[in-house]
Input
Amino acid sequence: MNVFDFDNTIYNGDSTADFYFFCLKRHKKILLLLPSLLFNFIKFYALHIGTKTGFKEKMYAFLKYCDIDKDVEDFWNTHICNIKPFYKKIRKDNDVIISASPEFLLKPLEKKLNFTVIASKVSKYNGKTEGENCYYEEKVKRFFEIYPKGEIDSFYSDSYSDTPLAKLAKSAYIVDSEKINKWDFSKIKKIRK
Output
């Protein structure tokens, strides 16, 4: 099977950020959370306090103002065009997508694009995480939970933070826009969980 990261790999952009701004246009009450979001952004990214999972929980607080099922459906009706052309050319029906994005956001694509989604388990109603953010080594753990004897033929990602998954693949590729290059295992990215 082939395994892919999602955001900036087969999707042009960050789907969670795109969904946030999509919802912000529809639900102005989300603006009330902006001071808290900025505070937590600075705390995590500038001051290096806390975890990525904790930061994401604070960010996902906006979900309480959404009509979530309708918003997700409408979002993909307008944003599915952001799936990159290279993926459309090489996709197979047994592809697996492993992403740190929330599962509720990516799951609707399983039927639309005929692949399997493994992603961060986040409550679509209040943004609370159910387990660890599906990132770095957590992606390997989650892969083997679903596919205990799974073998990865080719792996694609835009980030060297996915090196643990790349090491499992027979072939691994780094994606930069539409350019695909062999994975450079000498590149090490400092990881913050």
About this structure: The first strand starts at residue 2 and ends at 4. The beta strands are 2-4, 96-102, 116-120, 152-157, 169-176, 179-182.
